[in-house]
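ugh ok fine here u go
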Amino acid sequence: MHAFEIITVSIVGLFAGSVGGLLGIGGSIVMIPALTELLGPDQHLYQATAMIVNFFVVIPAVMLHRRAKAIKMGVVVRLVPLALLAVLCGVALSELPIFSGDNEPYLRGLFGLFLLSVCGYDIYRLFRRRKKSPLSTSPTPQCHIDGANRESDGIGSRNESQTTSWARIAAIAIPTGLIAGLLGVGGGVIAVPLQRRLLGLSIRQAIANSATVIIVTSALGATFKNFAYQANYGSVRQPLLLAATLIPLAIVGSTYGARLTHRLPQRTIKVAFFALLAIAATRLTYGAWLSL
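structure:
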């Protein structure tokens, strides 16, 4: 890479780390679209790179979440085994012929469509909530949804053993791991809303749990994906060098972003999440469509 590319890629790392630390998502949804814009399309290279960077992005974030006592270890310990198996399956799926060689735009387009579906669900929930709000006379349901007044217990009035049943855990861990392995993302974009929906956790606790799970899943996913990249596309030196350029400022950004998670209003966090997904999804899907 030229000097200008090194500087711009480093800035991408800073921004991706900040978003990853803030939202507990690893930062891939920023890195992959941004690298595609800067360096040209190469989805497998960027996924192999992003999985390495995700590991380093979430470590400082998890340390801060742990200090804030936001991590629910009982949930994390159950999520990890199934998520690990699902990550391996996801990476294997990403290496199928339908996503290789000249068919690489299909994988890029799938990534964009995935982000669009998340945006669509967020819009649906936003309008649904606005429609219901005039009929509500009590603030209690909103507090339950956002977890704003339940940061200490996380699961509210539900029975904890019931809400962390293996059926609910599987419904979170399996799609999280599959998406992480198939598309090279941290998986938090799925894990955060599912934890809130199925376990009743606050957004801060869901983010903290997601970041903790990503430490393990990204380490295994990066190893598996980079071995596959070495075998099928080129030297593993390429993703390693690109990751080395991204990591230093990504760690700085992650540390800052994780602090903001516990300081910013929850509505601000949600709006930032939605806006980022909408932009990345539109650019990726459109670019893949042009390639095809």
